[in-house]
Specification:
2 domains; alpha+beta; six-stranded mixed β-sheet; three-stranded antiparallel β-sheet; 353 residues; elongated; single chain; Creatine Amidinohydrolase
Length: 353
């Protein structure tokens, strides 16, 4: 729960109160997950509103916000009562997660001038506390356990969909709250599609199988990718795999607090370009992971900001050759002052099943 951090941010902000309506933001603030609710925070009050479906669970789970049932009121009407009590003149709304229409609707409904929250919450979320890292690691260990077990199921004749379903089952079986995203399982020529959708294609001997997956523990995501070969790997397949692995290692070596995201990306990209595959790496080296599977910071050619200490970023270079195959290897890195800690323990040497 983040009431203290949010209050400190509010004390330095050019507005008197803030309202959080996005599902992820509410969970970050209160630690409670629901599909409906709103957080109101001023110097005088901290209130979480929700409806009848969640009120009992919210009161049991939330300790540092007052929990109120919305009843038949609208959220804006309930918040207006607090605005009047606190004498709020300017109130911040989540302009990055609300649509323009939603923002304008809230702005017109509240009895205070609307201000943009901009990236205030993002700056707090990007630097993880020990408890948050522990949850990310717990989610990663579940994903790795599922990976270890699913290797027994990958063989010629099994379909991509079947492996994706098996990964989903195993992560839930070992304690995941949910999937971070729908697992990507692509094989053979399909593996050249970075975000290909698992289909009815049967895995064949000589295929690469790329699996990109992760799960959620107490709200926090994991994310990993491994590429394995079935039956055998050609010299070209081994060369491409080794190039991707060397690129990943180069990016990891460059990753530390204060280094631009684009510099980390560039370290990996140079390895791929020097091997002659520059045009086949069309996405960034990595992205932030936390309550969302894609969040700040970014390690890509557009990563113009330095990576902050305490952030978690992925390390996922790839090479994709249409009509042939693709390879991606992905770990999660905890960025610290003098380098990074790899939170992923799964082996990265090419596995041939």
């Amino acid at each position: 729960m983040r009431k203290h951090e949010l209050s400190a941010m509010l004390a330095e902000a050019p507005y008197d109160a803030l309202v959080l309506t996005h599902e992820i933001s509410r969970r970050y603030a209160t630690g409670f997950h629901s599909t409906a609710g709103a957080v109101y925070l001023s110097a005088k009050q901290a209130v979480f509103f929700t409806d009848f479906r969640y009120i009992e669970a919210a009161r049991a789970a939330i300790s540092d916000f007052e929990v109120r049932e919305i009843g038949m009121q609208s959220y804006s009407a309930a918040i207006n009562e607090l605005i009047a009590q606190d004498g709020v003149r300017k109130i911040a709304l989540e302009d990055k997660t609300l649509t323009h229409a939603e923002y304008m609707s809230w702005a017109s409904a509240l009895h205070a001038a609307a201000a943009r929250l901009e990236d205030g919450l993002e700056r707090l979320r990007v630097c993880k506390e020990d408890e948050e890292i522990g949850r990310i690691v717990a989610a990663q260990r579940i994903a790795e356990q599922a990976f270890d077990e699913v290797l027994n199921d990958i063989r010629a004749g099994v379909t991509e969909k079947e492996i994706a379903a098996r990964l989903t089952y195993l992560m839930l079986h070992y304690g995941a709250e949910n999937m971070s995203f729908d697992p990507i399982v692509v094989s053979g020529t399909n593996s050249s599609k970075p975000h290909g959708v698992p289909g009815d294609k049967a895995i064949a001997s000589g295929d690469f199988v790329t699996m990109d997956f992760g799960c959620i523990v107490e709200g926090y995501c994991s994310d990993m990718t491994r590429t394995v070969a079935v039956g055998h790997a050609t010299d070209e397949m081994q060369q491409v795999y080794d190039t991707v692995l060397n690129a990943q290692l180069a990016g990891i070596a460059r990753c530390k607090a204060g280094v631009l995201g684009s510099d980390v990306d560039g370290a990996a990209r140079r390895v791929i370009e020097q091997a002659g595959y520059g045009d086949a790496f069309g996405h960034g080296f990595g992205h932030g992971v936390g309550l969302e599977i894609h969040e700040a910071p970014v390690a890509s050619p557009r990563g113009e900001a330095p990576l902050p200490a305490g952030s978690v970023v992925t390390a996922e270079p790839g090479i994709y050759l249409p009509g042939k195959f693709g390879v991606r290897i992905e770990d999660m890195l905890y960025v610290i002052e003098d380098g990074c800690i790899n939170l992923t323990e799964a082996p990265k040497a090419l596995i041939v099943l």
